[in-house]
Amino acid sequence: MSRIGLLPITVPQGVEVEIRGDEIRVKGDRGELCRRFHPEISVSLRDGQLFVARPSNDRVHRSLHGLTRSLLANMIQGVSKGFERVLEVRGVGYRVQQVGDRLSFQVGYSHRVDFPLPPGVDATVEGTDRVRISGIDKEAVGQVAARVRAIRKTDHYKGKGIKYAEEKLHLKPGKAGKVSKG
Question: In this predicted structure, what is the pLDDT of residue 51?
Fold first, then answer.
């Protein structure tokens, strides 16, 4: 049985949930999210809590049960609290700045790399080496953070590049010098 799928989702005060068949709309202080779910998975709202149920114990229904519950919980957390990822830019001469609705990176290439922000995702630059990406859609925030990180992945020998703030780098030792006979 799905342990996650069986847990009820508490709807906080100020968040409205509207269920129309397989489409669920969640509205809160920070915005509104709408998503369609598999029609065989049923979602019900009782006493300020969302319950997800599946019709059978088929493998497909079991997997959709936990997935639906997790996606709904993320929607509710997004419209009430929001999500954010923090990235750090490390390296001599590496920096980031915000120019309008895009981020401009100098990360060791011969040119600047401009990254346009998609709608629904905001970014703030702290100093010249930290970027805070935030929004209400967890999937979109994570995707933007991954695409920003892919501009210059961290080098595991020198520690230069773009990394998540909570990511721990394990620097590899460089090549050992030649041993002379003598």
Answer: 94
